[in-house]
C-alpha cells in the first residue's frame, strides 16, 4: 500500500477517534479535586511583568542572560475528570539577569491556536505540524529561543521578552515531530533528539538540527505500539533510544483521556544504540528489565567499548493514576550497555526518590563527575512534596543534600558554568523555589561547589509560580 494511502487511512481513523474522544472528555465526571489544578499547582490567571526585582545577596556580574522555565498552566480550566498534568497549556516564566541585577520577571502563555482563541487574539503564524499544548522545555537553538513539546507539536519561537513569534518547524525543515529534550553535541554544536508522533505507532525519528538551526537528519527507527520516548542521550558514537513499555492506548484516547498512554505488559522493554550517522535499520537493541525512564542524566563510552548511561528509573508508569506520573519508585541508576553482547547491567546509585537530573552540559556525551537532581515524594504521583535537591559525586560515590526548609519546594536546578573555560562544578546552580507559607517564589542562585552553603543570591517574586517541568539559562 502506498504511503499516501496509508497516511489518508490513518488520518481518517485519527479524525474519527478524536471526535469520539472530545465528546467523552466533555461528558466525563469526577467528584475529586485534581492535584495538578489545585494547591501549589493552581494555575496563574494572568500574565505579569515585574521590573527591577528585589534581590537578597549578590547576583554574579558575569550572569548575562535569561533564566527560563516552562510548565503547564491551563488558560481555561479543563474538565478535571480527564486532565493530565502533561497536557496543560504552556506558560513560560523568565528572569532577565544582567550586570548583577534582576531586570525583570515575565510570564507568558505560549500562543497555540487554543490559547490565542481563549485570549481573543489573532493566531500566531507558522506550521504547527500537530495541534497540541507546548509546555515541556524552553531552550536556545541556533540563536533563537524555542518552547518545546513532544509527540508531534512543532517548536514555538519566542522573542527575548517571551512573546510568541511563530510556530517554527526549524524554517520548514522538520517534517515529522520533535522532542522536548534535544542534546547539544559539544564537539559539533549539533542538537540531537529522539522524536515520536502520537499518531505514528510504527516509527520514532533521530532528528539532528545543525548549528544553522535547520534539520539535517530525520532518520526513522521502526518500533511497535507507539512508545512514549520522553528523552534520549548521546555519546561520541551513539544516540540512545529508550523504547520502554509506556505506549499509546486507543481505548484511553477514545475514553477522552488527554494523555492516552498506558503501561503495556506486552511491549518489549529495550534500549537502542543507534550510530549518530547510521541507518535506523542497523540499531542495536538491548533488552532491559521492564521499567520507565523519563530522564537520563548523561551517557559516555568506556575504553572497553561499553556505553554508560545514568538514568532516573521508575518501576512502572501510567498504570494506576492517570493524572500525572505514578511510579512507586524513582531511583538513580547507572546502566552499562555492552554493544557486543547486547547485555545491560543495572546498578543503583541512589535509592532516594528523585527526578530531573541535570549536569554540566559541556560534558554531554563525555565522562563526567557531578549530577544534580530534585528530591520527590516516594510513591506519589506528584513531583512536588520534598524540599531538597541532591548533588551526586559519581567518582567518589557520595552525595550531598540541600534542604530549603519547611514548605519551601524547589524545582529543577540548572548548572551554569562560571566561564566557558571553567572546570566542571565551577559555576552556579539556579532554580525556582516556591514558599507555600507565603505563596511567593524565589529564583535561588547557588555556588555549585558550596552546595549546602548560603545562597549567592535570591531574586524575590511576590507570587507563587506553579511547579513546572524544564528550563535553562540562555545567555544573552
Explain this structure to me?
This protein is mainly beta and 476 residues long. It has one domain: Methylamine Dehydrogenase, Chain H. The protein has 3 helices and 33 strands. The strands form 8 sheets. Strands 2, 28, 29, 30, 31 and 32 form a 6-stranded antiparallel sheet that branches. The protein has a 5-stranded antiparallel sheet with strand order 1-5-4-3-33, with no helix packed on it. A hairpin with a 6-residue loop joins strand 10 and strand 11. The longest helix is centred in the first third of the chain and has 25 residues. It is globular. The mean pLDDT is 94.
List keywords for this structure.
mainly beta, Methylamine Dehydrogenase, Chain H, 8% helix
Topology (elements, then pairings):
Blueprint: H1 3-27, E1 49-51, E2 55-57, E3 65-72, E4 90-98, E5 101-109, H2 113-119, E6 137-141, E7 144-148, E8 156-158, E9 164-167, E10 183-184, E11 191-196, E12 203-209, E13 215-222, E14 232-234, E15 238-243, E16 246-248, H3 250-254, E17 261-263, E18 270-275, E19 284-287, E20 292-301, E21 307-314, E22 330-338, E23 343-350, E24 354-358, E25 370-375, E26 388-393, E27 398-403, E28 408-410, E29 414-417, E30 427-435, E31 440-447, E32 457-461, E33 471-475
Antiparallel strand pairs: 1-5, 2-32, 3-4, 3-33, 4-5, 6-7, 7-8, 8-9, 10-11, 11-12, 12-13, 14-15, 15-18, 16-17, 18-19, 20-21, 21-22, 22-23, 24-25, 25-26, 26-27, 28-30, 29-30, 30-31, 31-32
